[in-house]
Design the sequence.
């Protein structure tokens, strides 16, 4: 009875209370999956290392910069149509699409790195694959990759759980993302394309998890 009264009040509940209540637990894991998607995507790595990746695939500094500009321009229209797209298809289906785009982004990066690791003499195909993958990732960002978790908190989380869920779903992905960015150059040098495909598998698991949660 005490637990039920707590759920009916506006008092913030603890993580233990959230995990012990079916509806709250569902909301928590749904938001957590959405919060971890930017961490598992290539977004953080691209911000730090995309230019160096493109240069390693044979581009000059100016070509890599121009490629990044082109990626931004190509994906820019999605910023304007994404609200209409979300309204027409629903937030949750769009979120699954975003997760799928993040998965494909890593796959294309992995194929580009695989050609590089294999010692291909003509790396233009690696350049095209990496630019195309980065474009898919930027499309995911413009569709709402970074606002998935806040939108889910406002949409599905009861008021008295929002503070606790917000704190946990911000701190955990941020901590993991920081470690991920620091270790990625070492992992790439040791594992090559394998680390790209590992992250694509992580994003694919999030696609499956989101599909099961929201469909």
Sequence:
């Amino acid at each position: 009875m005490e637990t039920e009264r707590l759920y009916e009040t506006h008092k913030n509940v603890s993580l233990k209370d959230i995990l012990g209540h079916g509806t709250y637990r569902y909301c928590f894991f749904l938001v957590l999956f959405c919060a971890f998607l930017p961490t598992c995507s290539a977004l953080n790595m691209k911000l730090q290392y995309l230019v160096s990746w493109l240069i390693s695939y044979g581009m000059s500094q100016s070509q890599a910069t121009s490629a990044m500009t082109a990626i931004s321009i190509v994906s820019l229209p999605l910023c304007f149509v994404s609200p209409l797209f979300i309204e027409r298809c629903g937030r949750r289906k769009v979120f699954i699409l975003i997760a799928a785009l993040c998965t494909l982004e890593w796959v294309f990066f992995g194929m580009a790195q695989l050609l590089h690791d294999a010692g291909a003499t003509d790396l233009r195909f690696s350049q095209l694959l990496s630019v195309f993958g980065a474009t898919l990732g930027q499309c995911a960002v413009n569709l709402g990759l970074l606002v998935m978790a806040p939108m889910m908190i406002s949409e599905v989380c009861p008021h008295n759980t929002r503070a606790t869920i917000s704190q946990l779903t911000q701190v955990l992905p941020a901590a993991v993302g920081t470690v991920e960015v620091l270790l990625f150059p070492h992992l790439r040098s040791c594992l090559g394309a394998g680390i790209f495909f590992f992250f694509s598998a992580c994003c694919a698991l999030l696609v499956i998890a989101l599909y099961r949660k929201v469909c």
